[in-house]
Amino acid sequence: MELKGCIFDLDGVIVDTAKYHYLAWKRLAQELGFDFSEEQNEALKGVSRMASLEILLAAGGIKKSEDEKTILATRKNSWYVDYISRMTPEEILPGSIILLQNLRENGILTAIGSASKNAGMILDRIGLTKMFDAIVDGYKITRAKPDPEVFLRGAKELGLEPKYCIVFEDAVAGVEAALDAGMICVGIGDKNRLGKAHLVVSDLRGITIEQLTKL
Ligand code: BG6
Ligand code: MG
User: Fold this and answer.
1) What is the CB < 6 Å shell around ligand 1?
2) Residue ranges near ligand 2 (ion) with Cβ within 5 Å
3) pLDDT at 42
4) Residues sharing a CB contact under 8 Å with residue 61, sequence separation 6 or more, in sequence order
């Protein structure tokens, strides 16, 4: 492919914020009187805040009104924000900075395509905001992954057609969104889960532009 832009999911690709999401959801579950396992938490990766809450409540067999759900989601988010407000650049996942620098030095545009409304704050905390030509977060989209909206918007903000873009994703819903957007997808994580991606690697270490253009 002719590579002109790379769009990165944030949570689980550039930083491991999944652990903070999990801590906050688990705390909410405990307040509601049930336990929420790390395995159950897998289903929440890449999923929007409200959709995550629905999954959590279903796991606990709990029904709540729409107003109560808004209060619960806000409570979870305030704990989560408390955790991420203490993040430092040391939490940037291995290989991220080198890859971003390499792409930018070679004229390849970079973007964030995240479902999170906290993406801007996380990027500020870890000092990476300036490494991206476009940042698409949960405030800019109306349809959550696996809908391709987030990545199509990312390509648009970069001024590129989808076929020139590669998406880096750790969530199954995100891989589906990238493929649906007509983009090449590199899965970050487990091959068994992310097998639909064009390439699956365990992290961003050692990824070269030459390797990407062969996809
Ligand atoms: C995604 C995460 O990036 O953002 C999900 O993978 C999360 O776990 C979603 O629910 C929404 O994030 P936030 O920060 O807006 O609650
Ligand atoms: Mg992710």
Assistant:
1) 11, 21, 44-49, 52, 77, 114-118, 138, 171
2) 9, 11-12, 46, 170-171
3) 86
4) 34
Q: How far is the CA of 190 from the centre of ligand 2 (A)?
A: 13
- pLDDT per position as a tens digit, 10-64: 999 999 999 999 999 999 999 999 999 999 998 898 889 999 999 999 999 999 9
CA angle (17 as vertex; 43, 176 as ends), nearest 5: 45
Report the amino acid identity of residue 171: A
- Distances in Å between the Cα of 115 and the Cα atoms of 4, 14, 174, 205, 209 are 23, 14, 9, 24, 26
Q: Among 150, 161, 165, which Cα is nearest to 110's?
A: 165
pLDDT digits (tens, 9 = 90+) for 144-182: 899 999 999 999 999 999 999 999 999 999 999 999 999
